[in-house]
Amino acid sequence: MAVLSGNRETMNSMLSATNQNWKMNVFYISLGMGAFLMFGGRYFGDLFSIAHPAYINIAGVLIGLISFFVACVSIKCPDCKDKWFWRAVSKSKSGDWLFWLKSQISGPACKQGANNGT
Question: Cα angle vertex 60, ends 54, 61, to 5°?
Fold first, then answer.
């Protein structure tokens, strides 16, 4: 299993080589929006005189869950269809999954390298 270190991780990673960094960026933004709504629901409910601010909290939770599901399904190897995001969150240690995902230079299942045209 090849791993990059330092700041080179984004230049040669399998996510960059397969043009999937934008999917991670969409995941970050949607997860942030979900957290913003989830934790700010009461404030928005008071601000806009919404009778049931819990709906805003629920919407935030749903946005977070949907963004996680979409990332699990869409960030994958273009050759063998191995779901890289799901592999990262399910097989790595809890604090290491993001580093593991962004530092891989070859696919963990098919071993195709980022510079091999995958």
Answer: 90
